[in-house]
Amino acid sequence: MNNQQIPYNIYDDRCPTRDVLARLADKWALLVLGCLEKEPHRFNHLRRSIRGITQKMLTQTLRKLERDGLISRQIFPTVPVTVEYRLSPLGQTLTQTVSLLTLWVEDNMDAMSAAQQAYDEASVAGLPVG
Amino acid sequence: MNNQQIPYNIYDDRCPTRDVLARLADKWALLVLGCLEKEPHRFNHLRRSIRGITQKMLTQTLRKLERDGLISRQIFPTVPVTVEYRLSPLGQTLTQTVSLLTLWVEDNMDAMSAAQQAYDEASVAGLPVG
DNA sequence: CTGGATCCGATTAGATACTG
DNA sequence: CAGTATCTAATCGGATCCAG
Fold first, then answer.
1. Which of A48, A52, A80, B5 has the fewest C-beta atoms under 10 angstroms from its C-beta?
2. Which fold has domain B17-93?
3. What pTM does this model have?
């Protein structure tokens, strides 16, 4: 086999990259990845770090990320059991991009708030109404 | 006013950045932004470029992005009417991150496929079953 | 502590029909 | 061409209960 394939095209709805994007383009997935960037976390540690996430969503998100090979799960047979989540090598190559995105949001929040306000005021002014 | 605020923290569920992330961490939003990176697109041009998107989702996504100030909408009073979408200056600062993410997915699709297969095979092997 | 299982309301997204 | 409006099926996500 030669090492040139990459027929992947994310704009093609039948390309498998679409499914991956759908799983990755998810609020909780991005926050979990960002959280694990610095250090491994236990389940409840993650839950406390990511305000507002429910146990169900956290579990679901962790399973998805584990299945895609982005994080790994290590069980310590303590009593009660301890489970630690950490980025896989593959996941580490992604988090740089992810944190870039979350940082961008924080950095540009003011600009977007202003844009939203302008947009909404234009709406009530009667511009888009029939 | 001093120029130091940024109390924004995306891990706080009451921070407005959460809402922005939720809108941005969306399959269609990322694809639209990526599409507009290179050049302005008309509505149906976008629809054809992003395979699988419905007219409803495209409209909805465009409105969200416009409200957040990431894209602008220009109407040409031709017959029939022509509408062109393009990135705003703010949106341009974001697309570099976005395209990084979509490119990452395409580049690492093989690794993730392998991880998924391994994960699923371990499942049927009886590891997670009771 | 780390989840799995379930119920259920709310939101989403696709399909379809219609308009300036 | 560029949408709006509506109906509905499917999914999501929160709450709750239970277990190793």
1. A80
2. Arc Repressor Mutant, subunit A (1.10.10)
3. 0.93
